[in-house]
Specification:
about 210 residues, 5-stranded mixed beta sheet, 8 helices
Length: about 210
C-alpha cells in the first residue's frame, strides 16, 4: 500500500556515503527530507544535489536533515560527488543512501515499473520530528525539482503546526495567513488580538508579523 500523509515514515538501516544510517535514530529531533534520484552521473541529478548542498544554511535554519538515495552502489556515489563539486561549486555535505538492494526504494514506493522498473523516480518525503510523513512529492525522472518550493512547504508546515492557521495560495513567509475555520469568532478574536480581515465567515486573513 502506498505511503500516506500522517503515517509514520518506515524505519530502515542502510549504507550511505557517511556510514550506516538508521533512519529514525539519524533524524533524532529534526525534520527530515528524504529524496531519491534516478541514477548517478546523470545531468539533472547532478544539478539537484549541488543545489541541496548550496542550501545547507537554509536546511539548518529550519532544523532539517536531508538525505539522498539512488539504487547505485556506494563507490559510484563517492566518485560522483567529485563531479558535483566540480560542476556545481558545492560539495555534497549530506548522506546519500546506496540502495543497491532497493530495500528503501521499495519500502517508500520510489520505483514505478510503468515509468521505468530499473530506476527510482524523483520522490520527496518530508518527515517531522515525530517521524510522521507530512509531505509527499513525486516527479518524473526527466523533471528537476524546485527545492525552494520544498523549503516553502516546510515553512508552511512549521508555521501551521504552531498556530491555528493555514497558508493560502502562493504564500511565502511573512505574508498573511488564513485563520482556521475551526475557530469561532470569539476564539479568533482572543487568539489574534491584533485583529484580522474577514472576507467571508470562512475566509479570515491575519498577519502574524510581530
Amino acid at each position: 500500500m502506498a505511503l500516506q500523509l500522517g503515517q509514520v515514515a518506515p524505519d530502515f538501516r542502510q549504507e550511505s556515503t557517511l556510514g550506516i544510517i538508521e533512519f529514525h535514530n539519524w533524524l533524532g529531533n529534526s525534520w527530515g527530507v528524504l529524496f531519491s534520484h534516478p541514477k548517478d552521473f546523470t545531468p539533472v541529478c547532478t544539478t539537484e544535489l549541488g543545489e541541496v548542498a548550496r542550501l545547507n544554511p537554509e536546511w539548518k535554519k529550519r532544523n532539517v536533515k536531508v538525505i539522498g538515495l539512488s539504487v547505485d552502489p556506494i563507490d559510484a556515489h563517492h566518485k560522483w560527488e567529485t563531479d558535483i563539486k566540480e560542476t556545481q561549486g558545492h560539495a555534497v555535505d549530506f548522506p546519500m543512501l546506496a540502495d543497491s538492494d532497493e530495500k528503501v526504494a521499495r519500502l517508500y514506493g520510489m520505483i514505478h515499473p510503468e515509468c521505468d522498473a530499473t530506476i527510482t523516480v524523483r520522490s520527496v518525503f518530508v518527515v517531522d520530528p515525530s517521524k510522521k510523513i507530512r509531505l509527499i512529492l513525486t516527479y518524473p525522472p526527466s523533471s528537476g525539482r524546485n527545492f525552494h518550493e520544498i523549503l516553502r512547504s516546510i515553512d508552511s508546515l512549521q508555521l501551521t503546526d504552531n498556530n491555528s492557521v493555514a497558508t493560502p495560495v502562493n504564500w511565502t513567509p511573512g505574508e498573511d495567513v488564513v485563520i482556521s475555520p475551526k475557530l469561532s469568532k470569539e476564539e479568533a478574536e482572543r487568539k489574534f488580538p491584533q485583529g484580522y480581515r474577514e472576507l467571508k465567515p470562512y475566509l479570515r486573513m491575519v498577519s502574524l508579523k510581530q
